[in-house]
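Hi team,

As requested, here is the filled-out complex form for the zinc ion run. I kept the field names the same as last time so the parser does not choke. Let me know if anything looks off before we queue the next batch.

— J.
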Amino acid sequence: MLRIAIQSKGRLNEESTAMLRELGIEIDDSKRKYLSNAKNFPVEMLYLRDDDIPGVVASGSASLGIVGLNEVEEKGYPVEVVEKLGFGGCRISLAIPKADVYEGPQYFEGKVIATSYPKILKKFLDENGVNARIEVITGSVEVTPAAGIADAIFDIVSSGSTLVANNLKEVEKVFFSEAVLISNGNLSDEEKEILAEIQFRLESARNSRDKKYILMNLPEASLDEAIRILPAMKSPTVLPLAEKGWCSLHSVVNTGDLWDKVRALKAIGAEGILVLDVNKIIL
Ligand code: PRT
Ligand code: ZN
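And here is what came back:
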C-alpha cells in the first residue's frame, strides 16, 4: 500500500483524480473523506490543502504527492519530482499598475510587493540586486495595489484576465509551473514497485495522447505505397478481405499528420477509412 496526497478541492483536484482514473486507478470520491482507498490498486488517497502536500511527502506521512511545482519550489522541502504531469500549467509573474512605465527589475527598488510566494520572489530580487519589501498575503493578492497595500504583486497568472480586470500588467515571468508527481526519497521496496507501475502507466497514456488508430480498405496493388505512407511501430497490419485484390490495412499515426496521410491514402485508392482514438500504447 502506498499513500498519495492530492489537493482536496481547488484547481488541481479534478485533474489529479482524472489522471489517476486514466491510469486505471479508481478512486471513490463520491463520499470523499480525509483518506480513501483506491478500489483496484494498492494506493490510498490523502486529501489536503495544496500548501501542505510538499511537507507531508517530505516527512513520509504520504509517499507520493500531486501538487504544483510552484508549491514545491516555495516550500523548499527535500522531495523528488518524479514526473511532470502536463496539467495545471501557470507562471508566477511580477505585475504592476497598467499606467506605470517599466524598464527593468530596478523598477521594484524600494517598492512593496504583495505575494503568497515570498521565497521565490526573494530569490528573483536578490539575483537582480533589488531591495524591495515583501508583503506576504495568502489570498486575493491582485487587489492589493488598488487597496493601497502594495505597489506591485507577484502572483500566479494563467490567462492573464485577472491582471487585466485589476488594471495591472505582467512585466516579469519569473517561474513556470505545472502539476508534478513528487516522492520522498525513502520508499520501501513495495512502494518503489507501486511507483514503477504508476510511471509505466503514465508513459503508456502519454504515448497514446497524440496518436490515432487508422484502418482502411486498400487495393493490394497499392500496398507497398501505403506502407511507405504509414510507417507504424513495427509495420502496419495487413488483413485479407473477402473481395479478391483488396486488403484491410491498420496502423497508428500522429494526430498532426492525420489529414496529410488520409489525403495520400485516398489518392492511392484507399476506401472506408476509419480513424479511432487510442487509449493506451504499451511498448
Ligand atoms: O485550498 P488550497 O490551498 O488547496 O488551494 P489554493 O487556493 O492555494 O490553490 P488553487 O486551487 O487556486 O491552485 C492550486 C494550484 O493550481 C496552484 O498552486 C498552481 O500550481 C495551479 N494553478 C494553475 C493556478 C492557476 N493555474 C491560476 N490561474 N493557481 C491559481 N490560479 C489563480 C491565480 O492565483 C489568480 O488569482 O488564478 C488567477 C489568475 O488566473 P488568470 O487565468 O486570470 O491569469
Ligand atoms: Zn493553497
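Two things worth flagging: The radius of gyration is 25 Å. The mean pLDDT is 94.

Thanks,
J.
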